[in-house]
Amino acid sequence: MVITKLLGEEIYEAEKTLKPIPPITESHPGITVDEAYETQLQYVERRFADGTRVAGKKIGLTSKAMQEMLGVDRPDYGHILEDMIFSEDTPVDAGRFIAPRVEFEIAFILKQDINGADVTVENVAEAIEFAVPAAEIIDSRIRDWKIKFEDTVADNGSSAGAVLGNTRVPLADIALPSVRMEVFKNGEKINEGQGSAVLGNPLKAVVWLAEALHQYGISLKAGEVILAGALTKAEDVRSGDTFKATFDGLGEVKVTFS
Ligand SMILES: C=C/C=C(\O)C(=O)O
């Protein structure tokens, strides 16, 4: 059995000191997915002790592009904490992370709680107030991004930050699977994708999340932000870089790194 409290503490320390740890799947080869999620919760509890709170959740590994990039074959989730939310208007210090990457996705703001195992796309749509263009900063507290599924789960879904664009679009005004996205780095277009890349429809990712959380007795709360997963692969970040993603009908989000 894995000592999840100790592992959660190790991940917390790695993040704080910028000293990554070896893959947990090597130091604890028998770690189960349940133990990895328990480790994530222990990390989150440790972060609460510093005074932060849950702002929402991220769903990861919902697109083929990200699954292929990281060599995993199924979605996971992590917690977005209040101190992980950055503003579009203030450059984010790349030096506060170990090996940061940025990715672009559709996010949702909830107006109702979502509970339970038998959630449908319709239930999820009713609980969402707005769709929002979003960037997620990901990072790995595991050395050199050498992660297997259980490593990234334990490491809070490799999440490090979120930036929300300024637009808020009601779901009635947008067909999420057909939203086209373009990604620009320092003014040059580097990638493009479509909402359907996320499990066919980003709302299905939220259904997946509600069901996955239910197994661990966690529900989604009104006011939370849910990042539904990157549409295209993540991009390495260096200080001085500016990234922007434009989404048809949804607006844009920008993030600059100092
Ligand atoms: C390792 C992180 C993956 C994601 O955040 C994603 O696929 O969105």
Automatic annotation (TrEMBL):
Protein name: 2-keto-4-pentenoate hydratase
Keywords attached to this entry: Lyase
One term of GO molecular function: 2-oxopent-4-enoate hydratase activity
Annotated EC: 4.2.1.80
Top-level lineage group: Bacteria
Ranges for domain Fumarylacetoacetase-like C-terminal: 91-256
UniProt key word Lyase: yes
